[in-house]
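Severity: low
Component: inverse-folding endpoint
Summary: output formatting inconsistent between runs
Steps to reproduce: submit the following structure tokens with default settings.
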């Protein structure tokens, strides 16, 4: 018996009745020989961890655009925090931790430079619109590996596509990641907003429920989720905790996400992304070869331009914009 089969037997013994088991996966887009060491979900996790899109997230905005300081979250650190929270909840509920981790690590691969500001701009420019969850799936299905994609399992792809609030994942593990995403970004955005001096603290009404620190807030939400999800085919919080989380998000939108400074930076991002999009539509040959290759393989030109810009890091987009539209200093001496 190969090691993978032993691990599949262990899953069968220890996972709960609502868990997705790797031996029962609905399969990949293309059939391929299984690994003799890792389960299919473990293999997906590793493919995501080693792909280029994952590495680029370290230089992509989470909330604050081009922040000065080493301790602000990036899209990568957000992803790792989501993974940690989701794994904790999955383990407590006897779900498949490997599947949970794979979904969590891949859920934001399609995010644009400059966070949601970049996403909103591409959504307004592209004829089919732009949503980062759909782009994350496109990254793992098509963009990675020069158009071959990562060929992930159906369960991981479903979780990546459906991690937004308006979507409904098909697996319990996907539901865990969807809620863990909210827990993570609400709490770490508070930390970053306080560090940046945008807010001094959260209102006392939320501290009375969740405590005074980031760790106490996250711990309270995780404990509530576990307590209210045990023994049912759903992942949810109590009504009181949902109301608290909703109130926190509303507070953050009013004071941080839609603040004057945030909107001012958002306008700059809009102009930058718009210039880059229009330029590359007219100069396809100026994109990197892997994206030109996608067009030669039959992908629509404007869709690939969206791929190219969405894949950019914040600093790469700024550098490209400066190279194309900002005059360079020169001297005859």
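Observed output (run 2 of 3):
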């Amino acid at each position: 018996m190969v090691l993978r089969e032993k691990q599949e037997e262990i899953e069968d013994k220890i996972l709960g009745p609502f868990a997705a088991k790797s031996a029962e996966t609905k399969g990949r887009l293309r059939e391929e020989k299984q690994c003799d060491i890792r389960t299919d979900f473990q293999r997906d996790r590793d493919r995501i961890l080693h792909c280029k899109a994952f590495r680029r997230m370290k230089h992509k905005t989470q909330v604050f655009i081009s922040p000065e300081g080493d301790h602000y979250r990036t899209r990568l650190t957000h992803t790792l925090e989501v993974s940690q929270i989701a794994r904790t909840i999955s383990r407590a509920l006897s779900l498949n931790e490997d599947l949970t981790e794979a979904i969590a690590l891949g859920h934001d691969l399609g995010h644009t430079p400059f966070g949601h500001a970049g996403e909103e701009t591409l959504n307004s420019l592209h004829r089919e619109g732009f949503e980062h969850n759909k782009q994350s799936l496109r990254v793992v299905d098509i963009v990675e590996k020069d158009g071959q994609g990562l060929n992930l399992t159906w369960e991981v792809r479903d979780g990546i596509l459906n991690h937004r609030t308006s979507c409904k994942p098909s697996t319990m593990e996907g539901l865990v990641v969807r809620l863990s995403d909210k827990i993570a970004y609400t709490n770490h955005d508070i930390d970053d907003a306080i560090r940046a001096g945008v807010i001094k603290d959260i209102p006392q009404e939320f501290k009375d429920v969740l405590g005074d620190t980031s760790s106490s807030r996250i711990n309270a939400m995780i404990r509530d989720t576990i307590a209210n999800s045990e023994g049912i085919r759903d992942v949810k919080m109590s009504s009181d905790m949902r109301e608290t989380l909703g109130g926190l998000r509303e507070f953050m939108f009013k004071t941080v996400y839609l603040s004057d400074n945030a909107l001012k930076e958002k306008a700059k991002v809009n102009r930058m992304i718009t210039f880059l999009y229009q330029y590359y539509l007219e100069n396809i040959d100026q994109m990197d070869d892997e994206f030109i290759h996608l067009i030669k393989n039959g992908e629509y030109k404007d869709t690939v331009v969206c791929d190219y810009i969405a894949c950019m890091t914040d600093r790469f987009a700024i550098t490209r914009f400066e190279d194309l539209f900002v005059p360079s200093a020169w001297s005859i001496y």
